[in-house]
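REQUEST ID: PR-0412
SUBMITTED BY: lab tech R.K.
PRIORITY: routine
TASK: structure prediction, single protein chain
INPUT:
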Amino acid sequence: MGRWKDADGSSDGSESTEFHADGTVTERITGGETIRGRYSMGGQKLTINLEGVAAPLSFTVAIKEETLEMTDQDGQKASYRRL
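STATUS: complete
OUTPUT:
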C-alpha cells in the first residue's frame, strides 16, 4: 500500500505510516518515536495490530489516486496523501 502522510496536517500523532509488502507496518510519530506492527487487508477492510496496543484497529478504506481514506468503527474519517 505504500507510504502515507496525514492529508490535512491536523494529526497530532503520526508523521507518516508505511505499509510494507511483507504485511508489516511502520508508523513514525511526531517526536521521533517509531511504532511497528502488522496489517492485513480483506476487500475494503484494513486491520492493524500495533506493538503495545492491546486491541487491533479496524478501518474501512478507499484509495483514490494519491489519497487514502480510512474510516474507523465509529465513523470517524481520516485522509492521507501518498508520499
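NOTES: The radius of gyration is 12 Å.
REVIEWED BY: pending
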